[in-house]
Amino acid sequence: MELLTGTGLWPVAIFTVIFILLVDLMHRRQRWSSRYPPGPMPWPVLDNLLQVDLDNLPYSLYKMAWKPVVVINGLEAMQEVLVTHGEDTADHPPVPIFEYLHVKPRCQGVVLASYGPEWRQQRRFSVSTLHNFGLGKKSQEEWVTKEAGHFCDAFTAHAGWSINTDTMLDKAVCNVIASVIFARRFEYEDPYLIRMLKVLEETRTEFSGFIPEVLNMFPILLRIPGLADKVFQGQKSFMAILDNLLTENRMTWDPSQPPRNLTDAFLAEIEKAKGNPESSFNDENLCVMVGDLFIAGVRPEENTGVHPAPHPSEGRVQQEMDEVMGQVQYPEMADQARMPYTNAVIHEVQRFAHIAPFNLPRITSGDTEVQNFLIPKGTNFIPNQLSMLKDETVWEKPLCFHPEHFLDAQGLFVKHEAFMPFSAGRRACLGEPLARMELFLFFTCLLQRFSFSLPNGQPRPSDHGIFAVLLAPSPYQICAVRRDQGH
Ligand code: HEM
User: Fold this and answer.
1) Average pLDDT for residues 169-192, to the nearest whole number?
2) What average pLDDT does this structure show over 154-178?
3) For ligand 1, atom 11: residue with the closest CA
4) Closest ligand 1 atom number to CA of residue 92
5) 270-302 confidence digits (pLDDT tens)
6) Transmembrane ranges (predicted)?
7) 300 CB less than 6 Å from ligand 1?
8) If you measure from the C-alpha of residue 480 to the centroid of ligand 1, how many angstroms do you get, rounded to a whole number?
9) DSSP calls for 405-453
């Protein structure tokens, strides 16, 4: 009784506070070194949480709860960390919700796989398979061009009306990935495709936000029966849809024939790996890999928004296209070299949209020296892409949309080292060639046929996106007018 009242309570309270402060101090011991990178003053227990701007997460360097996080800023530091020290910086920190969902030994896919032999095996497989299908009879360029044609047809059906382009773009980029993985496409009205995109959309917010953060901080909650299934309903439904598609593919697979798609190539690897318990080629990992490629391949494209918002650069792009290919012939990748202005606009869209502002969080697997600072082994870090894409020492007008950033005085296209939207080093985007092709062919195909304007009374698209691991554009309406008909 004495403990709960009066004088007996004070010693317990003081002891508890001292205990918490000591544990907190132990958590920060890494930061005591004089060579630890500098940062904002943390509070006991709360750390830097009070400095986080919840209304503008991407611009506020985030998630600094209990573990120290080093933020890598600027081109030189970024190259040093991701490329020079690539071997010690290629891992992702363990994330309890992902471990719960699927990331288990020999079944980690590629995007979230730990940096090691399994990741290497799956990365090598995906890179070479994507490359091989690009060189096959029905090359990737043909698939993407065909899909761009369907995308334009969908616009034609809505010409002159106010359109929310997001759903059409989702369908088009989803079909490009489906062509690589299953060698098939879905009609835009197909309920299966509509359902798949609906659940994919649901997964968007399942991995970031308050509830996933709480589950990551207190993974024991994942053991509450039914809770995690409810939180990750979209993810579970999405994997079930992929499983059905994989089953259909398996039923028509003929091992004696050359692979028709990435799934066939994976099934052949599973056959070869039979009896090898160390191999990551197995049925469960096939589903995880395919899920990884869908999510990593569809989301960034739809977020980049290859459909153009109305902008004065539109007329100049169309003039360049008319000179190079006219208004009838379909654009080809080979045209890109002769279209410096169009190329500059597409690069500027990527720079300005900065859809992966922090890449994915990483962890050091060895002590890492960067710019004379020491990042100890086991430190979480965030490669801050924004620090390069909006760097005022690199870009003339970093906060404006300004295609001239990628042109020299003669109007020729110029590259910038600070432009690395696909990241760099060992975990750089493996879909970059396909992504570049989609950006160019979709963008040119649309602008060759349509001009864009804002529907009456609609506001200009916002420059601020919606952040959920990636940055998505805020929804907006647009009006497409056929160039040959002027309506
Ligand atoms: C505009 C389009 C795209 C952008 C801006 C983009 C950006 C990125 C970035 C920044 C990363 C690195 C994340 C990190 O540092 O950990 C990444 C990784 C990845 N991307 Fe992309 N991506 C795009 C399109 C694609 C496409 C079309 C595919 C699929 C074919 C794809 C597949 C992947 C995969 C599998 C990884 C993980 C690589 C690994 O961990 O080894 N991406 N992407």
Assistant:
1) 92
2) 82
3) 429
4) 16
5) 999 998 988 999 999 999 999 999 988 886 665
6) 6-26
7) yes
8) 30
9) GGB-TTS-B---TT--TT--STTS-TTHHHHHHHHHHHHHHHHHHEEEE
